[in-house]
Design a protein that fits this description.
The complex is a heterotrimer of chains A (about 775), B (about 160) and C (about 80). Chain A is α+β, with helices and mostly antiparallel strands and about 775 residues long. Chain A folds into 3 domains: about 5-30 and about 465-605, 2-Layer Sandwich (Aldehyde Oxidoreductase, domain 4), CATH 3.30.365.10; about 50-145 and about 230-270 and about 275-290, Aldehyde oxidase/xanthine dehydrogenase, a/b hammerhead (Aldehyde Oxidoreductase, domain 3, Alpha-Beta Complex); about 310-460 and about 615-764, Aldehyde Oxidoreductase, domain 4 (2-Layer Sandwich), CATH 3.30.365. Chain A has 21 helices and 26 strands. In chain A, the strands form 6 sheets. Chain A has a 7-stranded mixed sheet, with helices on both faces. In chain A, strands 7-15-14-13-8 form a 5-stranded mixed sheet, sandwiched between helices. Chain A has a 4-stranded mixed sheet with strand order 16-24-25-26, with helices on both faces. Residues about 1-15 of chain A have low confidence and may be disordered. Chain B is about 35% helix and about 15% strand. Classes of the chains: A alpha+beta (about 775), B alpha+beta (about 160), C alpha+beta (about 80). Chains in contact: A-B, A-C.
Chain lengths: ~775, ~160, ~80
């Protein structure tokens, strides 16, 4: 393989990063993950597994009201309780913040108003968790209860309670309710002309409920901060540099004053891309001068972290009898809680991204309600769009008697297609996923009574972001990699595979550590399916940097030009006219002498890779409906997705399966249920039911590999796209099983029974 | 506040501790005995991340009080491996990549071991229903089921 | 300096005289955004909130130094963020 010049280490903005030639030796194999033993023996330390001498325990008082003015907070009785060391309120945080920094502070500790059920009002640190909890009951808060709204459509109606005056950004159409804070519109062509060409136009209304990421590990942290203004924070997060940045801003200190160490992370799915409790624990630590541990209960996780947006959507698509789509239009209204930035522009941009459309238009509305601030959830905004659009595509296929995969192939976006959100696609893999789905035995397997098959496609943008990696070689020729992206799903294994591939050393000779914020340059959060793409690219580039240095050492030793040395099989070989003049020098031999040949050897990479490449998937699902109970059983499920290049195929399959399972939950069971009082009715795993083992079948996977030109090995992110198709795929399967078309999620048994009864009434 | 004195046996070792009467067995294991392998995912017995064996029975340790442990025999994930040798379930979970984040893994391991003690050759459905109280949000369970079946087969051969 | 053509998403167009695309002089994304701010001050809040840029179909999430050139297909997009 050709070695890069130094430019890649500094910048790396060339889209054409793909340069792999020949067979892979390590990439594509399935070794045990490096942290496997830690994870199966209980040795791995997660957020709540940290303790410190003299540690205090913290607890947070939360608003029982959906919307209320805070007239007075009296903490004196709590402070007087034996064992209570400090109470903090909003006054203990920075003032003068603006924009999203202010939003985040407002979300983690209420200011003038409580904006949702569960909104933090005050926090206590005490010598035991029981005393901390007891103290919460002694904090007296005087509220003036205000009218509230939790539904996205209701929040847009004239007369709806205003969450925050003047929050609307420029660009929101005139005359909208002040709760509509942002607006998006994009597309091309003339949709009305397009609809006029269609033989059939279908327009439908859809809703999806807010769901929670549902990571099994609640938010947890251990904070310390001394009178010198310097602190340390241990926490479960997808991005500790972001935690550092936000804590510094919210506490009014410099970023470098806080060193953040990421614990092992017990699931995130986007929900751990921001802060909730970390600045609160830091504020308490600052006030008490003692370590403070703060762990959310599951109820707090549901009431005050996450969730995703709920959506109200209208989609209209025109199709010719031969299956050609002539035009498409969608309106997507998302509520993101009592704050701006519901991901409605992604909903809009992803909605028709799978299709080659001459005429397409999409609009998005970002709406505020009295709910917790939405947080990113796996492909934020995209799954609901796919639910609406792919349901309408399926209905068109049903009415026109067309095969759903053939129709999707006929209209599929491919290289050169102008994307619905504007630009022209480079090489993409949608057609390949559709062809693989069509060829899969699942697609033609027989179905029984009350059973139906559903198909759906899905799309997601992937992400690069700031990335720093150091690869240090040991005296014995093994490699230690420091990366800054927490390992959410086995990424240490992928990093080690790529380093082993590049250096030509055994996988076992690579150790991967997640470094703290003081040990590496900035690293963007583990989000946007970026870890294997961006940290992986960084590991490859850092290994190449180290390799250049190894080659230089060998060249010096031989007294020849480095250009005349090549690296293969973990050793430097004289090449060209020097070939055969010297015995190869292995990495072990070069490293053993490193101190005497120029000093320690390490490779580095610091840059913002920008070639993540978009991602597509096609899912097939068989569902059976019980006409007596309305229960939907998922019988069989197949995920086909383009991974670019699967570095560790088992963990790629795992991402496909996990996304499908979460999507099935969103489709069938999961929802935030708010009462008339604006309170969340189901803040627990008993009533917010995520799929359990007995709810699911085996989930088959097909990894399609259309190399991403923006990565040296062709890798694309795989983490998120898998949650996009399942909502529609399941709805389409239910429709084909029972002739029912449910356009409201979740399709819980009561809703299906109601639809079955309505259908029977209609027929009778 | 008066504390309760408790003597018990954890992973074969005699332990003694003082605990608040409100503390759960999970609190005691983690906060007083430094055994943090069992995790609190919900505190209401719904997620199974805190699964331990209590006097031979699979329990959610967040639903047992620490004070109830007087004289009890408790087994946790920390006691599963035999010195350097992993339990076959532990080995197969790693080999099958049957974890992503790993937070549910200790509970799954304890629950699966309890299943195999009762039924050395469970079919897919039996495993799925047995594990219905152990939530995993990452994997979709597919690889977990395969790992348990594989471990069961290996354990039958060894037996 | 050469002119590049920048496509705007619809909500931005009102601040640029209703045009779907505008031309500004720039050699890289940073210069392009500065030129847009200078010419159309109304765009500043949206640009400051964070934008990604698609150049010939490749989405640049953050880089300001990425070169731009006449003849390229350039789209502004709201800043990408994942889960």
């Amino acid at each position: 393989m050709a070695l890069d010049e130094g430019k890649d280490v500094k910048g790396g903005h060339d889209a054409r990063e793909y340069d792999h030639e020949g067979e892979f030796r390590h990439v594509g194999t399935r070794p045990d993950r490096p942290d496997g033993v830690d994870k199966v023996t209980g040795r791995a330390r997660f957020g709540a597994d940290a303790y410190a001498p003299g540690m205090l325990h913290a607890a947070i008082l939360r608003s029982p009201h959906a919307h209320a003015r805070i007239l007075k907070i009296d903490t004196s009785r709590a402070e007087a309780l034996e064992g209570v060391k400090a109470v903090v309120t909003r006054a203990d945080f920075a003032s003068g913040l603006e924009g999203e920094d202010w939003n985040i502070l407002e979300n983690i500790m209420a200011g003038e108003k409580a904006l949702y059920d569960g909104h933090a009002i005050a926090a206590v640190a005490a010598t035991s968790k029981f005393i901390a909890r007891d103290a919460l009951e002694l904090i007296e808060v005087e509220y003036e209860i205000l009218p509230h709204v939790t539904d996205v459509d209701e929040a847009m109606q004239p007369g709806a309670p205003v969450i925050r005056e003047g929050a609307a950004e420029p660009g929101v159409p005139e005359g909208m309710h002040p709760n509509v804070v942002r607006y998006h519109e994009s597309g091309h062509g003339d949709v009305e002309a397009g609809f006029a060409e269609a033989d059939l136009v279908i327009e439908r209304h859809f809703t999806t409920e807010a769901t929670h990421q549902g990571y099994i590990e609640p938010h947890a942290c251990l904070a310390q901060m001394g009178p010198d203004g310097r602190g340390e924070l241990w926490c479960t997060t997808q991005g500790h540099w972001n935690v550092q940045k936000l804590c510094a801003k919210l506490l009014g200190v410099e970023a470098s004053a806080i060193r953040v160490t990421a614990s092992e992370i017990g699931g995130g799915f986007g929900g751990k891309t921001t802060v909730f409790i970390e600045p609160v624990a830091m504020a308490l630590a600052r006030k008490t001068g003692r370590p403070v541990k703060l762990v959310m209960s599951r109820e707090e996780v549901f009431r005050a972290s996450g969730p995703t947006s709920s959506a109200s959507m209208d989609v209209r698509i025109g199709m010719k009898k031969d299956g050609t789509m002539t035009a498409a239009e969608g309106t997507f209204r998302l509520q993101g809680g009592a704050f701006p930035y519901a991901p409605m522009e992604f909903t809009a941009m992803c909605a028709f991204a799978c299709y080659d459309l001459k005429h397409v238009r999409q609009r998005g509305f970002d709406v505020m309600t009295n709910r917790p601030k939405q947080a990113a959830y796996r492909a934020p905004g995209s799954p609901m769009a796919a639910f609406a659009v792919e349901s309408v595509v399926d209905e068109l296929c049903q009415k026109l008697g067309l095969d759903p995969i053939e129709v999707r192939l006929k209209n599929a976006a491919r290289e050169g297609t102008r994307a619905s959100y504007g630009p022209t696609y480079p090489r993409i893999g949608l057609v390949e996923t559709l062809e693989a789905a069509r060829a899969h035995p699942h697609y033609c397997a027989p179905l029984g009574p009350n059973q139906g098959r559903g198909v759906s496609c899905g799309f997601w943008f992937n992400f690069g972001g700031e990335t720093s990696v150091t690869l240090a070689l040991s005296m014995d020729g093994t490699a230690q990699i420091a990366v800054g992206t927490p390992d959410i799903g086995g990424s240490r294994a992928s990093m080690a595979l790529m380093a082993a591939e590049e250096l030509g050393i055994p996988y076992e000779d690579v150790r991967v550590t997640i470094a703290d914020t003081a040990s590496l340059g900035y690293n963007e959060i583990s989000h946007g399916s970026r870890v294997t793409y961006a940290s992986g690219l960084a590991v490859i580039k850092a290994a190449r940097d180290a390799k250049r240095k190894l080659i230089a050492r060998a060249a010096d030793k031989w007294g020849i030009d480095p250009e005349a040395v090549e690296w293969r099989d973990g050793a430097a070989h004289p090449a060209g006219e020097n070939a055969g003049d010297f015995e190869p020098l292995s990495i072990k031999e070069i490293c053993a002498e490193m101190g005497a040949t120029g000093g320690p050897i390490a490779g580095h990479y610091e840059a913002t890779p920008e070639g993540a490449g978009v991602s597509f998937a096609t899912h097939i699902v068989d569902a059976e409906l019980d006409p007596e109970t309305g229960k939907t059983t998922i019988l069989r499920y197949t995920v086909v997705q383009d991974a670019g290049k699967a570095v560790h195929p088992s963990y790629v399959e795992g991402q496909f399966q996990g996304g499908a399972a979460q999507g099935i939950g969103w489709a069938l069971n999961e929802e935030y249920i708010y009462g008339e009082d604006g309170r969340l009715q189901n803040p627990g795993f008993l009533d917010y039911r995520i799929p359990v083992a007995s709810d699911l079948p085996m989930i088959d996977t097909v990894i399609v590999e259309v190399p991403n030109p923006g990565h040296p090995y062709g890798v694309r992110g795989v983490g998120e796209t898998s949650i996009c198709p399942p909502l529609a795929a399941v709805a389409n399967a239910v429709s084909n099983a029972a002739g029912l078309r449910l356009r409201q999620l979740p399709m819980r048994p009561a809703r299906i029974l109601e639809a079955l009864e309505a259908k029977a009434d209609g027929e009778g | 506040m008066s504390m309760v004195h408790v003597s018990a046996r954890v992973n074969g070792d005699a332990v003694e501790f003082l605990c608040d009467s409100r503390e759960t067995l999970l609190d005691v294991l983690r906060d007083r005995l430094a055994l943090t392998g069992a995790k609190e995912g919900c505190g209401t017995g719904d997620c199974g991340a805190c699964s331990v064996i209590f006097n031979g029975r699979l329990v959610a340790s967040c639903l047992v009080l620490g004070a109830e442990a007087e004289g009890a025999e408790i087994e946790t994930v920390e006691g599963m491996a035999d010195g350097e040798k992993l339990h076959p379930l532990q080995q197969k979970i790693i080999e099958h990549a049957a974890l992503q984040c790993g937070i549910c893994t200790p509970g799954i391991l304890i629950a699966a071991r309890a299943l195999l003690a009762k039924n050395p050759d469970p079919n897919e459905k039996e495993i799925r229903y047995w594990l219905a109280g152990n939530l995993c949000r990452c994997t979709g369970y597919d690889k977990i089921i395969r790992a348990i079946q594989d471990a069961a087969a290996e354990m039958r051969e060894e037996a | 300096m050469a002119k590049v053509k920048v496509h705007l998403w619809s909500a931005l167009r009102a601040h640029a005289g209703g045009a779907e695309a505008v031309e500004v002089e720039a050699r890289n994304i940073g210069q392009m955004l500065d030129a847009l701010r200078a010419r159309y001050p109304g765009l500043a809040p949206a640009l400051d909130a964070g934008v990604s840029v698609s150049i010939d179909g490749r989405i640049i999430a953050a880089s300001l130094t990425e070169p731009v050139a006449p003849g390229q297909e350039i789209y502004l997009m709201q800043r990408l963020k994942g889960g």
